[in-house]
Amino acid sequence: MARLVIVSNRVASPKERAAKAGGLAVALREALSQRGGLWFGWSGETEVNPPEAPKVFRSGRVTYALLDLDPEDQRAHYAGYANGTLWPLCHYRLGLLTFRRADWEGYRRVNEHFARALLPLLKPDDMIWVHDYHFIPLAAELRKLGFAGRIGYFHHIPWPTPEVYLSLPSHAALVDDLSHYDLVGLQTENDVRALLTYISSEIRGWIAPGGTVGLKDRRFRVAAYPIGIDADAFVKDAVKSVGSEEERRLNESLAGRDLAVGVDRLDYSKGLPGKFAAFGELLRSYPEHRSKVTMMQVAPLSRSEVAEYQALRRELEELGGAINGEFAEFDWVPLRYLNRPFQRATLAAIYRRARVGVVTPLRDGMNLVAKEYIAAQDPENPGVLVLSRFAGAADELKGSLLVNPYDIEGMAAAMDRALIMPLEERRERWRTNMEKVETNTIHHWCQRFIDELTTVTDQFGPAGETWGHARPQ
Ligand code: ADQ
Predict the structure, then answer these.
(1) What is the CA(200)–ligand 1 centre distance, in A?
(2) From the candidates 156, 180, 289, 443, which is the catalytic residue?
(3) Tell me: the pLDDT tens digits for 79-103?
(4) 464 pLDDT band (50/70/90 cuts)?
(5) Which atom of ligand 1 is nearest to the CA of 342?
(6) Catalytic residue among 70, 73, 177, 364
(7) What catalytic activity does the UniProt entry give for this protein (predicted)?
(8) Surface-to-core class of residue 225, CB atoms within 10 Å of its CB (0-12 exposed, 13-18 middle, 19+ buried)
(9) Using one digit for the tens of pLDDT, what is the confidence trace for 265-298?
(10) Whose CA is nearest to atom 27 of ligand 1?
(11) Is 228 exposed, middle or buried (0-12, 13-18, 19+ CB in 10 A)?
């Protein structure tokens, strides 16, 4: 069996406990320790003239290799091109996009540096799985250095439609970079369609049935791999929370009121100002819910060195203060707003207690919180998920109340509907959603991608085969 090599910007340290590390990190670590493997990424450290070689250490069957970066390169790579250009582009926020040539060059330099540091650690039959938009050029750099083995890439965020994607000055170079992978995984069929349409209509690529793509003399496959969660772990944590001290404190603080919950990194893609406004609108237009429902928004700080994120934080503080100022009673505060992380078990307890889960991103690759909320519910008395149609999860979670996150009144109406929904309908909707969450777990996702990467190059057929120029449906 080929050794698996995973590349991601941040690497979950072997000491990070499962409850803290997050489902994705745990699943990747499991996949690596089952087959034996290497996890390669940024050390989190910067240093002027950093060493060419990574720090390498072993834990069980997994080898970790962590690379330091030059501070200016790290800024251009992470805050610059990855999060100042690609993140807003892929989330359809062209007004927030900045493109600087120096950042694009820094982004490529960091990828080159990663490739040079990784190459000496590789064996020819290793299989490499690269994660996310920080590393799109990595395969091209590894190929330049002579690595010919299998390389796959998974894009955790949305892939924008061609009209939006064409705003990127480096659009053709970046997709040319993608063509050095053997397998490119995206979250949804919509994302796949967007990328294939761009390839066939803008850069004269060939699309064969089944998603195999030809670009210049290279072939690669593009397919959807919707990511899941560790559903069992969430169910167990949620069930364990029943009768716990945390559950008791939460119940006591709510004094019999309903709870609506939101859990999102403090990021402009998550639609938090619209969600706050919709909750205000609920209290204004459906006064019967005043004093009867509390909303809890958990929003740990993220990328707080970036100006847009600081502005968003101020905006939410103002909006939240205004809602509480307008509606609070001496014994009821409508909105609880918390900027801190929690252990998975605490999140599970909060989700389970919530009658409504409010997940309303403006765009989201998948949104794992939506799936976690479903997994944590009591099957006998489940809550209702209000979900943005622009989250990847909306493709699978058809039992949710789907909303347009730009429609404040529509979201308020959906929250009202969720709060008054009869038990039988809640159960039915929850069952529809839970079936998806249970069948497509993070373990299935991991296995499916690895299985496909193992065999993908066999499907390309012999060189010289005639390809149909099929346009994606
Ligand atoms: P994110 O944008 O981070 O992920 P999401 O998919 O919701 O978004 O995952 C967030 C994770 O962080 C969840 O597991 C959640 O439980 C956890 N989390 C959030 N707030 C927390 C808190 N206060 N304390 C502890 N944990 C907290 C990116 C993409 C998504 C895609 C994922 C996975 O933007 O679209 O679904 O990657 O591919």
Answers:
(1) 33
(2) 156
(3) 999 999 999 999 999 999 999 999 9
(4) very low
(5) 24
(6) 364
(7) D-glucose 6-phosphate + UDP-alpha-D-glucose = alpha,alpha-trehalose 6-phosphate + UDP + H(+)
(8) buried
(9) 999 999 999 999 999 999 999 999 999 999 999 9
(10) 341
(11) buried
Residue 156 a catalytic site member: yes
Task: Report the atom number in ligand 1 closest to the C-alpha of 270.
Answer: 2
Q: Which of 458, 377, 453 is nearest to 152 (CA)?
A: 453
- Establish whether 126 is a catalytic residue: no
On whether the 231-438 domain is CATH 3.40.50.2000, my answer is yes
- Three-state secondary structure call for residue 267: coil
Distance in Å, CA 471 to ligand 1 centroid: 34
Tokens of 273: 């100002």
Per CATH, which fold does 4-228+443-460 belong to? Rossmann fold (3.40.50)
Q: Does an H or E element contain 261, and which? A: strand 258-263
Share of the chain above pLDDT 70, in %: 96
- Cα-Cα-Cα-Cα dihedral sign, residues 425, 431, 436, 441: positive
CA-proximal residue: ligand 1, atom 21 (nearest)? 341
Strands (E), 142-192: 150-154, 183-186
Residues within 6 Å of ligand 1 by CB: 22-24, 156-157, 227, 263, 265, 298, 300, 341-342, 347, 364-369, 372
Are 250 and 350 spatial neighbours (Cβ–Cβ below 8 Å)? yes
Strand segments, DSSP code E, in 47-87 are 55-59, 62-69
What is the residue extent of each domain of the chain?
4-228+443-460, 231-438
The closest of 179, 147, 233 to 460, measured between CA atoms, is: 179
Same fold, 4-228+443-460 and 231-438: yes
d(C-alpha 18, C-alpha 14), whole Å: 10
